[in-house]
């Protein structure tokens, strides 16, 4: 794992040491804010811990709504801080089969339109559950990001849940898969929202974008 300098870690801390707010949920591309600042997006299977990670990053307990009901996020949820040159986009969870087919089709189309038509999108962070590793739905998303030529990076979540040897196997398998994808950043980020492990490093990576 990359070692980040004290200056890089501090830049990341300062970027998120300000009040972040939920701006709105977008169900259409026309609803999105202007392309006036760098955007990063978080993608992942339902219940992978996206909301918890966003809360940990921003130091807010309930900024992003967490739910035990997979598939709750069905919009592009926008988060901003007034004086930050950054916008966070929380994308709908994928791989959730219980939602009505029409709903799944609608938000899948929204995601595709967003990824292909957002010139200020610098990186998508694809979250993978540290207990389970990559699933076919994750690889499908990676293929789509490759096809759209969108830079993305894998973030392992819930790293505090599995045993160390199990987590090591997940990291090794994920690294092997990532090496086959052209648009993927080679470095994995390993995090625990609960223990705050890897949060400072993720903040540093984001600040460098």
Which structural traits does this protein have?
about 210 residues, alpha/beta, 7 strands, about 20% strand
Provide a descriptive summary of the structure in words.
The chain has 209 residues and is an alpha/beta fold. 36% of the residues lie in helices and 20% in strands. It contains 6 helices and 7 strands, in the order αββαββαβαβαβα. The protein has helices at 6-16, 50-58, 101-117, 136-148, 164-178, 199-208; strands spanning 20-26, 38-44, 76-81, 86-90, 121-129, 152-157, 189-190. Strands 1-3-4-2-5-6-7 form a 7-stranded mixed sheet, with helices on both faces. Helix 1 packs across helix 6. Residues 67-71 have low confidence and may be disordered.
Strand content: 15-25%
Q: Oligomeric status of the shown chains?
A: single chain
Helix/strand class: alpha/beta
Taking strands numbered 1, 2, ... along the chain, how are they ordered across the largest sheet?
1-3-4-2-5-6-7
Blueprint of the fold:
Elements: H1 6-16, E1 20-26, E2 38-44, H2 50-58, E3 76-81, E4 86-90, H3 101-117, E5 121-129, H4 136-148, E6 152-157, H5 164-178, E7 189-190, H6 199-208
Parallel strand pairs: 2-4, 2-5, 5-6, 6-7
Antiparallel strand pairs: 1-3, 3-4
